[in-house]
Amino acid sequence: MAGGKLSPRQKMINLMYLVFIAMLALNMSKEVLSAFGILNSKIIESNSITDERNENSFGQLSQKAQEQPGQYGEKKLIVEKIRKISKEYCDYLEGIKTIITRKTEKDAQGNFMYEQMDKGDLVDRLFFKGDKTSKEGKEFLEKIKNYPAQIKEIAGSKLPEVEVNKIEKRFATTPIKSKEAGATLPWIDYHYKGFPLIATVTKLTQLQADVKATESDVMASMFQSDLIAAASLTAYQPIVVLEKSVFFQGEAVKGKIILGKFDPKLIAKSVVVNGSSVPALAGQANFSFGSGNIGEHPIAGSFNFDENGKVISLPINDKYVVVARPKSATISADKMNVVYRGVVNPMTISFAGISADKVTASAPGLSSAGAPGAYSMRPGTGSEVVINVIGKLPDNSIVSDKKTYRIKGLPAPAGTIRGEMGVVKGSKSSLQISTVGAKMIDFDFDVSLDVVGFNFKVAGQPTIVVPGNKLNAQCISVLSKSTRGDQVTISEIKTKLVGAGSYMLQKTAPVIYEIQ
């Protein structure tokens, strides 16, 4: 490396680079070696998954080529050739890994002992001869350069230019500027000279991953427009076409299911529905007309297209049924099947087939929430409430319905210190300034709670009854006598619901504070 006609400065740079590589190898930690080994195993596992995916994609292509040889036969042959050269290249890389790891020990499970793969002399002797690239190294570089060129030659114009550029970039072997070496190094020197064995094995496995990813990308890009769309039934949607749109109880439901595919690029010249023209949109047309009298009615018309100078009409034939308006209300609690005392229960109340402005509802504690169909329920005393609903039909006739809801009290809250429940740990000074609170556990409503009193008990000291939600002077005095490990019990917590007047909640669960 120091011979030949190199300048003294270049000799010094090369020498420093060798020293750097030697230091890097000497300081390579076992954790880093293991990390490379784990990464190598992960890439191998990913390669196996990619192989399976590629095999499935090729199986779909083979099936389509058998069914429609004129459309897919040539493409199948192209993919077969690409898969062949990809396998040959992967096998070549696997052969190199076998050569450089032939002296590497394995554990009982057959895995390499990564922490012992810190030397790179086998790779250096294989790929390099002194300062120059060896015959095997040149072959290695040639294989990398030839692979994208072979793919481009086999696929020809069927492979998009953007995909060709991506593959060529993936397997580029241009020289790389090295900050450590202070010079631009050949690609193979930069990536493989002086590295630990496990690092080189991992890089070779990654090259195999690049090959498999390329094979997958080629298939996807070449056949994205026709193979995927034609081979996969997911491009189609089952469309249910009923004999009519409404059926009565006891009547057989009849119809058919067809497969259809939406084409957003297909726009009709004109669309006629029941004698009227409707706007033609991308792949569809929206229509609207009066429903008419009770009974069965046809939907007829046509989609009209220009094709080879002629108008092609696709007929529309369907039907719908008009039935009388329903006479039962739909009432639902938005968050539960009961209403709770002490909070605002949001409810949605409607009458099927009647607009919200023609529906009224009444019950003790029920009021409008300001939006159509939205109500607020504040139940009072008792164990249930009946909601009555009245709807006015277009002919001004009245229909009514009612439903009964159970009334339940709010669940008992749990006491808190600093917002924490159960057993809370901390210093005495932290407890002195903390607030005693309470909160609902797993409750659907957002509620605010106020603590108006509690009992304060330090182990071995008398119980103190405290008004409000903070420790008073008497509590602090008793607390000062406690020691590390003592527990303070805050119980008999009196809790009120904010905005609920005098409504008192059920007994609040105590909270324990352990002195640290």
Automatic annotation (TrEMBL):
Gliding motility-associated protein GldM N-terminal domain segment(s): 31-224
Gliding motility-associated protein GldM first immunoglobulin-like domain residues: 230-323
Domain (Gliding motility-associated protein GldM second immunoglobulin-like): residue spans on this chain: 328-408
Pfam families, sorted: GldM_1st (PF12081), GldM_2nd (PF21601), GldM_3rd (PF21602), GldM_4th (PF12080)
The organism of origin for this protein: Flavobacterium soyangense
Family annotation (InterPro entries): GldM_Ig-like-1 (IPR048405), GldM_Ig-like-2 (IPR048406), Motility-assoc_prot_GldM (IPR019859), Motility-assoc_prot_GldM_C (IPR022719), Motility-assoc_prot_GldM_N (IPR022720)
NCBIfam families according to UniProt: GldM_gliding
Name of the molecule in the record: Gliding motility protein GldM
Limits of the Gliding motility-associated protein GldM C-terminal domain: 411-516
